[in-house]
Amino acid sequence: MYSQYRKKHGIPTPDEIKEIRQKYGLNYSQITKILGFGTNQYKQYEDGNVPSESNGKLIQTIKNKNNMLNLLELSKEKFDNKEFEIIKKKISECL
Description:
It contains 7 helices and no strands. The chain has helices at 2-9, 14-24, 28-35, 41-46, 53-61, 65-74, 81-92.
């Protein structure tokens, strides 16, 4: 039932959610700051909790590196300069 709901509403699976974070080499704290989620929210999605439709679609959009970089720029104030530059480099180097 959950897989049908996910498919119908464009919500990624737990494995897809995990792959996105790992693709960029980010930890939970970093990705939740970029997305504006609660502290443990992304991990809960990786563990199988179903995101809201809006959060699911947001996660889908960050599969695209340019979208991820745009969100990172919008979240710049949440990181010190050094960490921001490290994250930006990691994302930029992704295929």
